[in-house]
Amino acid sequence: MHWHTLSAKEILKKQNVNPQIGLSSAEAKLRLIKYGENIISQTKKRSFFKKLLAQFSDFMVITLIAAAIISLITSFLRHDVNYSDSLIIISIVIINTFIGVMQENKAEKEIESLKKIATPLSKVVRGGKLKRIPSKNVVPGDILMLHTGDLVCADARVLESSNLAAEESAMTGEAFSVDKSSQDYDKNSSGHNEKENMLFAGSIITRGNAKAIAVATGMNTEIGEIASMVSSEKNSPTPLQQKLTDTGKKLGICIMIISVIVFFLGVMQNADIFEMLMISISLAVAAIPEGLPAVVTIVLAGGVRKMAQEKTIVRKLHAVETLGHATVICSDKTGTLTANKMTVTEIKTATKNEIISNSKIKEIFSLCTLCNNSTLSKTNGKITAVGEPTETALMNYAIKLGINTAILNSDFKRISEIPFDSARKLMTTVHDKNKNTYKIITKGAPDVLLKICTHYVCENGKTKPIDDTVRKDIQNAVKNMASKALRVISVAHKEVPKENFDIKNAEKDLIFCAIIGVMDPPRPEVKHAIKECKNAGIRTIMITGDHIETAKSIAKSVGINSNNALTGSEIEKLSDKNLKDKVKNCSVFARVSPKHKVRIVKALQSNGEVVAMTGDGVNDAPALKAADVGCAMGKSGTDAAKSASDLILADDNFTAVVEAVRQGRGIYSNIKKTIHFLLSTNISEVMVVLLAFLIGIPSPLLAIHLLWLNLVTDAFPALALGCEPTPKNIMRTPPENSKKSLFSGGMGYNIFVEGTFIAAIGILSYSIGKVFYDINPLNPIVGRTMAFLTLGISQIIHAFNVRSKESLIKTGIFGNMKLIYSTILCIFMQIIVVTVPNLIVLFKTTPLNFAQWMTVLMLSMMPIIVSEIEKYFINHKIKIQN
Question: Is 332 a catalytic residue?
Fold first, then answer.
């Protein structure tokens, strides 16, 4: 339906709704059943069966199954009744495949659940009351109340508007704002302007406010129709996942080459060709870390859920990785570094040293009350203002003075408004004073407001032209207030005849009335958080729209270096190259506009910094997008800021940013531990077979053993390592360089050495069993059993080495109970295949005596003993150097 062609009355009639009352709860429920949830349907996910087929489509898995089938047929042709090898190998492959599908499913569910955490809300009128409801519950006929920064959740017809504009880039791809109004359709207009009275789902209110009626939701919206044309949807891999995929491919090629070498070495040593085929293919299947990205996704998503419990909602998985590398945090001042509990503490007029009368103070705050969008709320019998903190501070002071805001607003009815804009730093309202006159009131930043004032109210109440002396007195008073860390607001007004009124000239030739100092004290916990950042190698930068003296005073009180500070006007004069140099030593930026914020972020990034940026307003969205990690405020943040951000801080507090960095570092650290463990154990399996054939002895492990080790030792301990608690000292070390390889800092070397060492222990265990206990050297069943057990248990125990660079004596064994449980389970699974009679036959193992068990256990503990000795010497060396 062409909703834009209908008048507001026609649409209200069609939707059967009163714009003042809205839908009833009962009617809204019926419409929700009729139209469905207000969501854009996603492409149907792959079925379990298709995922299973995809797992079986892996070349190595197909090859192994084919080899097992060939072995089965060969055994049948040879009249060999022992088919167990082939059947068990096929069974283990199937089990591994099902585990792969389960991991994929879990990863998908984790990601889907993360999307549901940050449920957007919309303001609607229902049953005559303004309510905030989940946007997915909005239905056609709902009356929407929209303000600057709100995300439009449905296609809607504008009923009332004030200076309204919206950005429709989600639908059109164009980033500029489009003017909107409630005017009826003009059949003579065409193109874009013909839908000026419509707001579309996915667009953002960039200016003004509106009352609108939802006419289409979900897939019936214009953006829903576009989405329905898209045939598939893919979750883009994070940079880390991409790195791991590439690493996995390279490792896979190396392992396949080694498998081929192992096959030919075995054949050259007269080993059974089918047995060697099974061993080499099993080695490749077991050692290639094809499931690594899936395991990392699960660890990432689990960490993100933990962050959500700590009131940090991650919208994009890559943000977790980037947080671990952050070197700079760019923070807003108000509400983030300060308490956002504002109180009027000082009032000055343009006349120097004037003792302001009560009546004049009431006049000043009457103007502040009229030019104000706060609403009144009654709690426990006390009336207080609700809204933007600076405006509520002004309104609360007016209430304290005994000003009746209801009567005042009735006497001076607002007829128009130019909303506050962070670029203009002004807000203007137009009021109907009498039948011939409009009263215009403007409040905002003193330095900006003073430029558009030509007169001032002097001590006797009369107006005089502003001269240089008065202008200087006002500027000095502003500077004096700002140096006390006060937020400074100024107010001005004028009266114009109705016949001469033009909204374009509203902010010209004003009469300056007063400056008001509002105290917003620093949060007490911020100073410690900034110190913690400094210890962690993270620089804190304050970016604010406030006066430079206010910014410097607050910065000094919380521990930010305020010696070098820049204003927006100074930034304007700097080239990108000069700004790049300036940001190296400047930590306070004041009176900045949104474009300045973007320039600051890009200048920092050009210096190699990884930037986390906080923001809450619609105009913060470009800087949040430009930053490496955009952090939107959960309480005060607009929908526009939240949509542009990578994560949302439920608590508008700088300490929440620092805590998010701590959690991000912890998650990244756990991912590295998981990778470290998986690759070192996989390499040990490759090396034990390769070394055996290189030194001319039969393989210590059969194909079935390799696949079983891959099944038992890979999944559970690796996932348990992803649940490690964040180390207490993680914020005492500098951030990792994001450009460096994942295996830098000795991690790659450690993986290789540890894998080789575990393999050597396995070969030693095999040799002891073969030489001292096996009767038939051609069938070293005791040696293989001992090697199988030693390799499996030492791999499981190795997870405790990977937990921390600190000694286990210091960190304790029971810090991660999931690892304890997975260790018990995996060792139990390893033991049963050498103790349960039927499994002994299937796995070609043998029961061990006490001496053999003691040898296995002592050798299995060697990795942890050697690691503890190494950690002692490394930590002792670091201690001496410090």
Answer: yes
